[in-house]
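FW: tagging you since you asked about this chain on Friday. Here's the raw sequence from the shared folder, copied in full. Didn't touch anything.
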Amino acid sequence: MEENIDTFEKQVKKSKDKRFTFFNIILIVAIFIGLFIYMVMVDGIHNILLVLQSVNYAWVVAGLVCMLLSWVSEAICLHIPIKKLYPTQTFWMSLRIMMIGQLFNNITPFCSGGQPMQAYYMQKDGRRVSDAFSIFSVKFVISQTALVVFTLIVTLFQWNYFQSLMSNFFLLAIVGFCVNIFAIVFIFIIGINQTLALAMVKPIIRLLGKLHILKHVEEKIENLSSSFANFNEQFNEMRKQKKVIFQMFIAASIQSLFYYAITYMVYRAFGNSGVSLFTIIPAQAFLLMLMTFIPTPGSGGGAEGGFLLIFNSIFREGTIHISILFWRMYTFYLPIILGALFLIPFRRKKEVSP
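HL: got it, structure written out here
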C-alpha cells in the first residue's frame, strides 16, 4: 500500500488539523461540565458529598488497575505482530503507539483518528505505512472476534438475567451483535477474496457518488482496491502464523475482560452488591457496541445516556450519576490525559524497514 501514502498523509493532516482538534477538545470539556451540572441538579451537592464520603476507595483503585491492565493487554496484542515483523520493536514502543491511539480515538468522532496517527508515529519509528495499516486491520479482526466470542459465552451463561436487564433494548442488542459479526465476516472476505469484497463495495461507493455524498469516486475505488490487495497479502501471511494469532486472541480476550470489569469496580465502589461481574459483562458489551454508532468524540453524551438507561436499575438510588462520572473518568478522560503524555517527543533511533 505504499502507493496510498498520499491518502494516508491526507488522513494525518485532517487528524492533526488544529481547529478540528480544538473543537473536539471544547466538546469534550463541555460534555464533562454538562454531566457535572446535570448530576448536581438531579442529586444535589449535599447528596453527592455524602456519596463521595461513603465511597470504598479500594474498589476505585481496583478500577484503575483494571484500566491499566486493559491497556497493557491491548499493547501486548499490538506488540505481538509488530515484533514478528520488526524484531527490534520494544514493548515500550508498542505501548506508546497504543496510547497514542487511545488519545486520538477519544478526541475524534467514530474513533476515526486513532489508526492514522498510530501509523504516522510507526512511520517515524521506521515502520512501513502499509505494514502499520495491515497490522491494525488484523488486530481489529482478532480483537472484535475475541470481543464477540467472549461476550456470547458469558451471555449464554447469564441469558435470563441479560434478557430481563435489556428487555427494552433487546432487539437493538441483537442488531449490535449482528453488525459486529458482519464487520468481522467482511474483513475475512477481504482477506480471502479481495475481488469479491471490492465487488460488494463498489455499488455502494458509486451510489454515494451519484447522491453527491462522495467525490472522486473512481479514485476512491482505486485506492480501496489497492488497500484490499495489501491487506489480502498481509492477511494470508498472518494466516500462516497460527501461534501469533492465538497469542493475539488471548491478549484481546484478557483486554476485554479487564475493560468490562471497570464497570463492576465502579458498581462496587459505591456500595452496590448482588450482581456479579459476569452478569454485568453482557450489558457492558452491548453499551460498548452502541457507543460505536455515536458520532461524537469518545461517543460523548450517548455513552453516558446509555450507561444510565442500562445500569440504572442495578445501582442503588443516588449513586448512578456519580458512577457514570467515575466510569467516564476511567474510560474517556484518563486515556486522553495519559495519551497526550505519550506524545511528548523522546530521542529514538530511526530504523530501516526490512
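FW: The radius of gyration is 21 Å.
HL: agreed, and The mean pLDDT is 81.
FW: great, closing this out.
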